[in-house]
Amino acid sequence: MDAQSRRVEDVELAAFIDFSEAAAGLEPLALAHEIIDDALIMVAAGDPHFLINRVIGLGVSAPANRETITHFKQAFEAADIRRYFVHVVDDVQPAELRDWLAAENLVPQRRWMKFVHQGGLAPESGSDLEVRRIDGEFGEAFGQIVAASFDMGEASIPALAKLTERENWYIYMGFADGEPAAMGALFVDQGVGWCDFGATSQKFRRRGGQRAMLAARVQAARDLGCDLIATETGEAVEGDAQHSYHNIQWAGFEECYLRANYAPARN
């Protein structure tokens, strides 16, 4: 893995370690996390969504062990999580990892495209929303709209809301006549900005909200001294409108690499 891709993997890992720490002790989400083989294992018994039930960084900075796969599979099964994601980079360590996953009935899913933004700012969005960074006052609104947009459960809302109070997270919101309409999160670590949780309220679609959120986060990352900004979305597939994909490219992000996702085979 080249140095740039490694930085992208590292910042996402750091972001979700921080997310997991923010969610610690929140019920009924009951998100438990641990780090094994330098990989993050997130198990949220209170919300079966794969975004918070996943394994990040497996085989990236350290070789994975066969026993680790058995361990996290048992942890997800104990929490009754039937769909979770295990992210696998092309040059995963060891190469046998894919065979180990297959032996545990974990199969490839749609991949995610990683994007990088290496210089400059995004164009003017043309949105009429008022954009500003928010704090805990709007944390619940942020959590509600993100959860609704990603089909996450209500149990995840307090954990998402906590991000507005975390030191390394910068949460931006677009307001329509004072009402929360669009939002996006930026996590900054080691000079890299990670854009995640872009969401728009259903009633305020088609007002350029996500382009405004991307532009605000690119500007913020540059102001914070980031020399690299990254994000991700599902790979382009025929028949998918790819709205997020096109918005990301509009903002000046370039395709960097595809990362595989493995999940339990559906019976």
Written description of the protein model:
The chain is of the alpha+beta class. 30% of the residues lie in helices and 29% in strands. It folds into two domains: 3-112, no CATH class; 117-256, Gcn5-related N-acetyltransferase (GNAT) (Aminopeptidase, 3-Layer(aba) Sandwich), CATH 3.40.630.30. It is built from seven helices and twelve strands. Strands 1, 2, 3, 4, 5, 6, 7, 8, 9, 10, 11 and 12 form a twelve-stranded mixed sheet that branches. The longest helix has 21 residues, at 3-23. The protein starts with a helix and ends with a strand.
Q: Give the end-to-end Cα distance, rounded to a whole number of Å.
A: 34 Å
The run of helices and strands is HEEEHEHEEEHHEEEHEHE
- Major sheet characteristics: 12 strands, mixed
Shape: globular
Proportion of residues in helical segments: 25-40%
- pLDDT < 50 runs, ≥5 residues: none
- Find the structural class using helix and strand composition: alpha+beta
Write the CATH fold name of the largest domain: Aminopeptidase
